Amino acid sequence: MALFRHATFEISAAKPSGLPPSLGSEIAFAGRSNAGKSSAINTLVGHTRLAFVSKTPGRTQLINVFRMKNGAALVDLPGYGYAQVPLAVRLQWQGLLEEYLIRRSNLMGLVLIMDSRRPLTELDWKMIGWFAPTGRPIHCLLTKSDKLTRQEQSKTLRDTRAALAEYGPRVTVQLFSSLKKTGMEEVEKIVGGWLGIEAGGDDASHDREQEKPSATGGGLAEGEIA
Question: Which residues contact 86 (CB under 8 A, 6 or more apart)?
């Protein structure tokens, strides 16, 4: 399908108001700092340095937009949960994430990156519980799965799906490895479905119009974004 292949960098913004107008569909990528988000994005687009991979977790402070060939955008959001970032910066990032995820009218869904060795941390649960009421889907990528044995992979996938079963089909889960490049077809199929793109139909724009329920529920707790 190669949905994400050959995406190109478009813009970085310190706040949602600096983003382009809400025209094409957007897919947000979010996750705890050091969960492998940038590596996953680079693997999906087939470019080793498109998304910045920092040696210091929590360093990426901007919303980064990458435009895909079909006209939709991949939106890389700042990582959250890195305690060593100053409180004032964490609060700034928190407001940035909440404003984008609540108010961006053309946001189709959220790809949530979680380290397969430590899935569903407290902050991951808060992100899911906060975003799910918007009615938009969430797809969880359990990254770094190559670091687990096959038995551990099966158990982690089974346990994570069971823990999220209450959300039904709105929240889906898969294993992913940037190193081994495994799980790429599955995430492309899921996100392609959000965009109304059938397998093999990634060359044309298939943005679909749909109403988005308004977000409900409380935001993330103060000072937890980094």
Answer: none
Residues 3-34: pLDDT tens digits? 999 899 898 888 888 888 877 899 999 998 88
Residue partners of 30: CB distance under 8 A and separation at least 6: 37, 77, 79, 80, 97, 101, 110, 111, 112, 113, 127
pLDDT in tens, 211-225: 444 444 445 543 443
- Please name the amino acid found at residue 211: E
CA distance 40 to 26: 17
Residue 201 inside a domain? The answer is no
Query: Does the residue 211 lie in any domain?
Result: no
Using CA atoms, how far apart are residues 51 and 40, in angstroms rounded to an integer?
9
Q: Residue 55 belongs to what domain range? A: 8-194
CA angle 202, 190, 39 (to 5 degrees): 85
